[in-house]
Amino acid sequence: MIPLNHYLVTSGILFVIGAFGVLTRKNIILILLSIEIMLNAANLSFVAFSSVLGDLGGQVASLFVIAIAASEVAIGLAISVLVFQSRGVLDPNEMNLMKW
Amino acid sequence: MNHLQILLFYIFALTAISSAIVVVKDRRPTYSVLALAVVMLALSGLFVLLHAYFVAVIQVLIYAGAILVLFLFVIMLLGVSGMEKTEETSRKNKAASMAKIRWMVKALLSLMLLAELITVILTLQDSKLPQENFQGTVEAIGLALFTNYLFPFELVSGILLVGILGVVNLTHKEWAERS
Amino acid sequence: MISKTWLILFLPLVSFFLLPLIPEEKRKLGGWLACGSMIFSFLLTLELALPLFHGEILHMYHIPTEWIVLPGLKLEFGFLIDPLSILMLLVVTGVGSAIFYYSLEYMEQDEGYRRYFAGLSLFAFSMIGIVLSSNLLELFIFWELVGLSSYLLIGHWYQKPAAADAGKKAFLTNRIGDFGFLIGILLLWTFSSSEGARTLNFLRLNAILPGFVQASPAHQTWLTIAMLLIFSGVLGKSAQFPLHVWLPDAMEGPTPVSALIHAATMVAAGVYLLARTFPLFSLSPVSLGIIAYIGGFTALFAATQAIVQKDIKRILAYSTLSQLGYMVMAVGLGSARVGMYHLTTHAFFKALLFLSAGSIIHSTEEQNITEMGGLIKKMPLTSFAFLIGAFALIGFWPASGFFSKDEILSLAFSQNRILFWISASTVFITALYMGRTISVAFLGSSKIRKKLHEPSQKMLFPLVALSLLSIMGGFLGIPKLIRGGTLGHEAGVANSFVIFLTTSLGILGVLTAFGFYKLREKKRKRIQETFAWLNELLIRKYYMDDLYDFILRYFQQPLAQFLSWFEKRIIVEGAVNQAAAGWTAQAGHYLRKLQTGRIQTYLSVFCAGVIIIVYFLTTRTLH
Question: Is the backbone peptide bond immediately before C462 cis, with ω within 30 degrees of 0?
């Protein structure tokens, strides 16, 4: 049997990889992609705990996460497309209207 | 059984991690998306190991099957030129050294976060084991979903509706002009 | 009874506020308004004093109104009515009314008629306020107001540079004294804590401070310091050495002003303060000693300067300084009672002297006594009044001045021989300068060509009234009014030796003066030449004015300029402009750069924040 820790460590590593991708990538769409990695890592964590604690709530939660991720990706991509159409680039560094 | 499970775990886990690294590092967008698909499949395998059968299937069907496909569509829609240009212009940045430093900082932050997480996990959790009689079957999940978690379930439907409306509003030419 | 006290205090103030509303055509109405309110205050004071006249010792009414109430600070506004304040109030309102009435005619032709009466009313209000105050802070407020009124009134004819300067000199000199006064008040405030509360109320201070002093010898020293600081206020207001320099200059103001403020009442406020706080001064014999010596010294110092003055008002001014010295000395020797007695009689005869002088000035349009002469023939009534005043001043029996002055000298005789002989010398010199004045201005042949007239009813009546008081004052039993209480030694029967000495010195002084001026021209000139150096010294006021000028020019001005420069360059430009404003702008300039507008920057910071929070959350809860 595989101890819980193993799953949690895997989840953590995936999460950090995703975070690194969010911070580093120079393309809005790929940033969204990295966010997906992070969500997946969270899902893994949910399911692992659910299995260990015997509570189905974790798995139900991960289902919800998937559903919400779908919704979020849809809107996020829609916005990215619009931004691309008005700006011509998808570089997040170019989107600095909030600069002082 | 034991050894097989441990072996499978490591295969799936390591695949997931290395594919994730590819997602984050590769310059070609399509390759990133496909690598993410591999990550999801690997995770699905891990879910099965955790007896969460329904979630595993849903993960493949919806996450890998629909969401990632949507990503691919958008990437294709924007065209290779849209993608490559962004990656290359950033390489031609004048303040290349500044960019390097920034990258280092972010890498450092990520490593610190990782260290923290692992420390916390290893210190806090004693090694619990997954229970045997516990199965995440369709019936079980369905039961939970329609009794204990009915309200959140309905709310999530609402969110999906909002998502659909939002996207259509944003992108549909006539609708967008009207609003 | 209580509400009448409010009226006594505020009627003059009402008159002050109403006077500017009176148009030029109806100016006389303004005068009557001011005069009327003062007379009314006087009548109310008489009514208040009735029990005292019947021999009852008045209980001390105390009507505090809470004015400022903060934690740890409670200031009240109230009236303290006891024999002392009633006596002073009678003097202020009584003599004040007489002088107001006199002014109706004296200032008739003056341009600033209404302004004059407004100023006079303000003064009356402030002076009455001082007398009625129940605590030191209230008194200080009125004290300052009185200083202001004095400034306004001295500078009544402000177009005349000398008058404007005199007003400034008076106010500034007073200010110096008041600075010390204020510090003294603050010190007493800190000493007065009892049951956690602090007070400036006179009655409570009298009760609390003895305990304070007994607590430790260091406290005794502190109290002495505080009381000496309070005395510095007296130095300013009552023009004692070295803050006496403003009083002679103050004669630039109208004569009734000189009579009221600079003879009878305001300058006496210092003595009143000493009497009011006498229980506190008694706790510090050292301070009393210093007070006595300053008083005695001032008395002699001023009297000597009076001998060489040519302006009749200045003679009277120096005389006032000298008599104030007597009063202060009396307090210092341990009897505020005797000091107050002299204050009262002095108010009578000094006001009389000034008003007679005013009458002379009004009709001769001349102030220099060497330009007068033979007034006794030309203005017999006025001269007679003046003579009565002089008689009282020198201290001949049966005039009031005799009684009060001899009390002071007897006190000195029994307490401090040095001061006694100084005072005796002063008696001689007083007689000398009054004799001189009479000789030069009233006797002999007249240098004035024009026809002189006696004053008319309005000016005459106060002269008569004050003459009567100056003569009868000794028989009114004033010391009996203020017997009991905390005013020091009782006024006893004077020492016969003292009586003999003072009377002889008085006669001697007058005769010397008469004799001198009877001498032939040549002899006189020779004596004058021999003493020319002395003359110079005295006329130059012992070079006091020069000394002050030197100090101001070479110490105070450079210091003021340095401080001004400091404030301008270093504080305003440096600290505020440069530091505060400049650095803030700089900081802003740099901090602005944090707002890059880039998501990934913000996310990195976010991530760092998460790391820190997780760190703190986990390291705090791990056991």
Answer: no
